[in-house]
UniProtKB/TrEMBL annotation:
Signal peptide: none annotated. Homodimer. It comes from Amycolatopsis rubida. Topaquinone (TPQ) is generated by copper-dependent autoxidation of a specific tyrosyl residue. Its EC number is 1.4.3.-. It is an enzyme of class 1 (oxidoreductase). This is Amine oxidase. Belongs to the copper/topaquinone oxidase family. PANTHER family: COPPER AMINE OXIDASE (PTHR10638), COPPER AMINE OXIDASE 1-RELATED (PTHR10638:SF86). Its cofactor is Zn(2+); Cu cation; Mn(2+). The keyword Manganese applies. PROSITE patterns: COPPER_AMINE_OXID_1 (PS01164). Keywords: Copper, Manganese, Metal-binding, Oxidoreductase, TPQ. The lineage of its organism: Bacteria, Bacillati, Actinomycetota, Actinomycetes, Pseudonocardiales. Pfam families: AGAO-like_N2, Cu_amine_oxid, Cu_amine_oxidN3.
Amino acid sequence: MAHPLSRLTEDEVARNRALLAEAGIATESTRFALVSLLEPAKAAVLAWQPGDPVDRRVRSLLLDRRTGAVREAVVSLTGGEVVADRAVDVAAEGQPPILHEEFDLVEEILWKDEAWNAAMRRRGVDEPRSVRISALSAGCFDIPGETGLRLVRCLAFLQLNEDDNLWAHPIDGVVAYVDLIAGRVHDLIDDGPADIPRTAYDYHLDGPARDTQKPIVITQPEGPSFTVEGDVVTWEKWQFRIGFNPVEGLTLHQIGFQDGDRLRPVVYRASVAEMVVPYGDPSPVRFWQNYFDAGEYSLGKEANSLTLGCDCLGEIRYFDAVLHDDDGRPHTITNAICMHEEDAGVLWKHTDHYNGSVSTRRQRRLVISFFVTVGNYDYGFYWYLYLDGTIELECKATGIVFASAFPAEDDYPWATEIAPGVGAPFHQHLFSARLDMMVDGLSNVVDEIDVRRVPIGPDNPHGNAFTRKSTRLAKESEAARLADGNLGRTWRISNPESRNALGKPVGYTLHPEGLPPLLADDASSIARRAAFTRKHLWVTAYAEDERFPAGEYVNQNDGKTGIDTWIRADRDLDGADLVVWHTFGLTHYPRTEDWPIMPVDHTGFTLKPSGFFDANPALDTPAPKPQHPGCCR
């Protein structure tokens, strides 16, 4: 009997398509933008017991390629029927994400368009198929004539040969707005030719390599310490369930820690629910550049097949991801998820000069990760679980910066010249982690903790004292917050109904990096559409239909359905079933060292137990085998 959260199988994806076809909903011109498990409500999952029946339901977002009509359908695989079907008002709600086939479609459209080819000839490019098109999400800018159209905005790069790194040759000053349903250029903006950089930067080709590196061999002769049963992973004292869907990619469910005879819940569901890359170049051909990689490009669909020795080292357990293609048929990404454990340095250590003892323990962490490629950028998402109860998320950004032609003047304020004539506009990578918290149960609260300096006075005569200030975030209107490094600001999620040995509420604390949130003006289109990026923290009362911080329909959505609209209800958060949304990320002023391919940059956050355990939960970690007698006792 399947668990309510068991990942979809190939047979289930195929059956979903067949049932929609039998019902006349899926036709020859239908494309499946999204197919995903309709996760049951939290209460239903928590109440489920092995042997209980499960109604397996699948939600599909469908696009008619001939008409542009969009439908949302829900199929009960258990009952063998369509249980919901509605038309989506794309003008009011937004468009489905961009399909894989549409990237090829756009090139065919532009290669045949005379006005576009004339713009290329003005730039000295006579062979249409040497021009490769980056089809980019259109956003929503209230441009007359665009309402209701399914659009992409297209920038171009010159490909010198089949092995060429085309990102090195931006064809600048021109952008095409393409209507994907009509199959034509809706508008063409030509701001004038710029020189096309033609120096080759083919980093990926074999060439001379240093010969100084000696092998590093990672082995676990007795195998890994984790066990896997279906989608459920047990490692050390941790237990959780793996999920995967086309929008978020990897999801972790029902994360709990074994404490004595209790498996104590910490997080019910954890994911990166959205990420957006807003660019800061206001030029007429680039002002619109900002991409929602989950909501507009279906992050999970872009997952890489990982390779041992290249992407992962050590004793690896891979998981395949069963998704779907544009026709709704099963599409399996092999080795989409990599899981392994690794040494993480010293866990704890003390040399005691009074009793002569020397004690050291090694930290380990379990790593659950996947990598995606979205256009020019590549992103790795790494969840870490530690022996001491800590949870971390690290996001790694690499790939190739989106290039522009750098103007002749050397003081262009919106980009870096990263190679002669090649610019890279300033931009940000902003992620939204959705943490459906369940700290020892469903009754949780959030407190904002700031350091507080204390002036010299009667209670602090020598001026050395400092303390902390705790503020309860009791309503949703109070819980949209910015990080503050000067105050060491953290947020503690605790359960007032569960107490530790000292009689205090058990809790976990979110430690943010506190780097800049969205830098675009508050009145801008992207600030409206990606309102979640304007604050580092949002806390909402759990609602089954609030899964994505920019709304269900992100592509060409005007921003009226995101997290900032949910909190207008101003629901009570004190002792409620809570979802914590954390915005974090990078502000990227590209460097010459980022070219022609960018070394990994890192961002993320940490969740640390704070009063959750009665003592260090890793005291029973075994001592390492010393290489010299008398240490590590």
